[in-house]
Design a protein that fits this description.
Immunoglobulin-like, eight-stranded antiparallel beta sheet, 12% helix, 22 strands, single chain
């Protein structure tokens, strides 16, 4: 007890004797330590614990038309953003917009406000979405917006100059930063945008991913494990659209089932498989990996 008291006294004495400069550095170090485990995702990268979906979906419109494409970036069944394309065609000019609109609890990373001039007059004032370079960190330091942001705006006149404003430009591939507020957690993700044509209003949503809250992965209970082949999966986020795939040590899929969830639980039967180590993946209805782990059959 005396040793503990002396140690506390020394820590307190050291703290109060710090110079203002060292005190600021100490507080900054504590802040960095507190924030160093903040969630983030690298543009274009994903880990086995991330939610990842490969789409390769081309979005396009004809003259005078519009199209919308909803994205559920974390696979929870709620739309997080919508990509909108519109093309208007007049007698003297044609104009097209590529926009991204956050939905529900989604937010999009903002870049800057930009003005597009046409024939010395303001044609359009745009709030641009940020284009993250590949492997750039997408985290809480970005400026996040709940409002519609522009991927690319262009106005082409048959008489007089044309104008455009964008962060995403053909033929480059870009990454939109997105974050979703899910209860107590915030997940960060990216959407890969590729221009499908240099003239026609077409773009491709190649793929997207986001990190999953660690708590969400931990909340999946698999029991008993090891077992004689019967394993119960239990989590509040299991739905009838969720499926389970099980692989053996050779990478061969030995089990697949769409979950018939009762009371947030589902039991799979591997009793017909040989004793040994197996690997499972829990797949969302959109095709992304929600959770994964090991099973041992005795």
């Amino acid at each position: 007890m005396k040793l503990k008291h002396n140690l506390s006294s020394r820590v307190f004495t050291t703290f109060v004797s710090m110079s203002p400069r060292h005190l600021i550095l100490f507080i900054a170090a504590l802040f960095f330590y507190k924030c160093s485990d903040a969630q983030f995702v690298l543009a274009g990268q994903h880990t086995p614990n991330d939610y990842y979906v490969l789409k390769d979906t081309v979005i396009y419109v004809y003259y005078g038309g519009s199209a919308s494409y909803p994205i559920d970036v974390n696979g929870d069944g709620v739309v997080d953003c919508i990509i909108n394309i519109s093309l208007s065609f007049g007698s003297h000019q044609w104009e097209y917009d590529y926009d991204i609109l956050p939905q529900n609890f989604g937010q999009i990373a903002w870049f800057a406000a930009d003005t597009c001039f046409y024939d010395s007059t303001i044609a359009n004032v745009s709030s641009l979405a940020k284009n993250f370079p590949k492997n750039d960190s997408i985290n809480q330091t970005a400026v996040w917006k709940n409002s519609e942001l522009v991927l690319l705006y262009s106005r082409n006149g048959f008489v007089g100059p044309s104008c455009s404003t964008n962060e995403f430009n053909f033929p480059d591939t870009g990454f939109v930063g997105i974050r979703v507020l899910t209860g107590k957690d915030t997940v960060y993700g990216w959407i890969r945008i590729t221009w499908a044509d240099s003239v026609l209003p077409m773009l491709k949503v190649t793929d997207y991913a986001c990190n999953l809250p660690l708590a969400e992965l931990q909340n999946l209970a698999v029991y008993p494990n090891p077992s004689n082949g019967l394993f119960t999966f239990r989590a509040s986020w299991l739905t009838p659209q969720t499926s389970v795939k099980v692989y053996n040590m050779l990478g061969q899929m030995v089990y697949y089932s769409q979950l018939s969830v009762t009371n947030s639980a589902y039991t799979i039967n591997l009793s017909g498989e040989a004793a040994g180590l197996y690997f499972y993946k829990v797949i969302s209805g959109a095709g992304g990996i929600i959770a994964h782990g090991k099973l041992i059959v005795r």
